[in-house]
């Protein structure tokens, strides 16, 4: 964020960079470039999952991709979104105003985002437990009782266990779908903020490097979300819809930011724009932090059968997943140097 009090040299340099026509031209280019890189990023894991489906290493490959995704999402929330939200509300254009100077609203809204994500998680888990196919508290009726007290014959007990196992697998799939959908909501908030901020900016010196940085940003974020979508087992139509929503959100945000500037004259240094950016960013960050730590990292490393199983195979897979987690978080964190 620009300082409220700048020196003469900085002011001259800033004035030279503010070129509305050149900025608009760059923003139109960025709409198409960011859309294409977003499609590439999110479709990669989905297409790989479809190609390798049914192959011996399919489940392990998807799990490693998901751990990489968890690292990307965690880094997105802590290294990109949260610092930007704090910076927006700490900007001198905002922090000089009441009540923004009196209370750390960024931290408060981040906490609200995390608690909201927990509430959604609890509500969905309760729904899965009591309706629509059963859940964690579901009781499985023995086959002999189901047929009116007849004596259980050989093979029925095995069939009953198979029904129970299939029900548990379905619950896991429902949980993975919920995680993917809530993740997409958090990422969409973040993408809209990025797009609108860039669309309102008239500084061509800022926009030019942002195009390249945001392209890589969208690729890694797309890999993260795509890995979760691939494991959730959505129908083809839902997969296409979720991928398209991710791909168009940032470009549409850029267009929206350009429209807001043309109608109101607000640029990315306007106090109202900074407050909205800070609040939405904090909410998004809280959602993403909760989803990354609770529904991705903790769920897989402590409750996934492939990672908790004893033996050399489980130990090796756990190490690979941890390396994928570190690589995902490190690669996304590195992008903070540019965007």
From TrEMBL:
Keyword tags: Ion transport, Membrane, Transmembrane, Transmembrane helix, Transport
Cellular location(s): Membrane
Alphabetized InterPro entries for the sequence: ZIP, Zn/Fe_permease_fun/pln
Topology relative to the membrane: Multi-pass membrane protein
Location (main, coarse): membrane
A GO biological process held by the record: inorganic cation transmembrane transport
Gene Ontology annotations for the cellular component aspect, listed alphabetically: membrane
Transmembrane domains' residue ranges: 28-49, 61-83, 103-120, 182-201, 207-227, 239-266, 278-299, 320-338
Family: Belongs to the ZIP transporter (TC 2.A.5) family.
NCBIfam families xrefs: zip (TIGR00820)
Protein name: Zinc transporter 6
Organism, scientific name: Cardamine amara subsp. amara
């Amino acid at each position: 964020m620009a300082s409220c009090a700048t020196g003469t040299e900085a002011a001259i340099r800033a004035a030279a960079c503010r070129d509305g026509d050149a900025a608009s031209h760059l923003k139109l280019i960025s709409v198409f470039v960011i859309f294409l890189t977003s499609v590439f990023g999110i479709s990669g894991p989905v297409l790989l999952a479809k190609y390798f489906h049914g192959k011996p290493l399919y489940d392990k490959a998807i799990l490693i991709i998901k751990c990489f995704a968890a690292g990307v999402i965690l880094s997105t929330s802590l290294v990109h979104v949260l610092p930007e939200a704090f910076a927006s509300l700490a900007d001198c254009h905002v922090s000089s105003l009441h009540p923004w100077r009196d209370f750390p609203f960024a931290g408060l809204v981040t906490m609200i985002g995390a608690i909201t994500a927990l509430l959604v998680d609890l509500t969905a888990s309760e729904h899965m437990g009591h309706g629509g196919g059963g859940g964690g508290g579901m009781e499985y009726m023995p086959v002999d009782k189901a047929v009116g007290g007849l004596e259980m014959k050989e093979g029925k007990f095995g069939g009953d266990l198979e029904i129970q196992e299939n029900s548990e697998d379905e619950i896991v799939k429902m949980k993975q779908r919920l995680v993917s959908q809530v993740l997409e909501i958090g990422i969409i908030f973040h993408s809209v903020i990025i797009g609108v901020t860039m669309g309102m900016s008239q500084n061509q010196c800022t926009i030019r490097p942002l195009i390249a940085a945001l392209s890589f940003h969208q690729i890694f974020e797309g890999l993260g979300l795509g890995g979760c979508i691939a494991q959730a087992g959505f129908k083809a139509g839902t997969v296409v819809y979720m991928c398209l929503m991710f791909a168009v959100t940032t470009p549409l945000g850029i267009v929206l930011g350009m429209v807001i500037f043309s109608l109101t004259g607000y640029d990315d240094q306007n106090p109202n724009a900074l407050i909205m950016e800070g609040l939405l960013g904090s909410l998004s960050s809280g959602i993403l932090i909760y989803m990354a730590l609770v529904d991705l990292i903790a769920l897989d490393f402590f409750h996934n059968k492939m990672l908790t199983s004893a033996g050399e195979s489980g130990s090796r897979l756990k190490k690979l997943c941890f390396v994928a987690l570190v690589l995902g978080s490190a690669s996304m964190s590195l992008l903070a140097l540019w965007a």
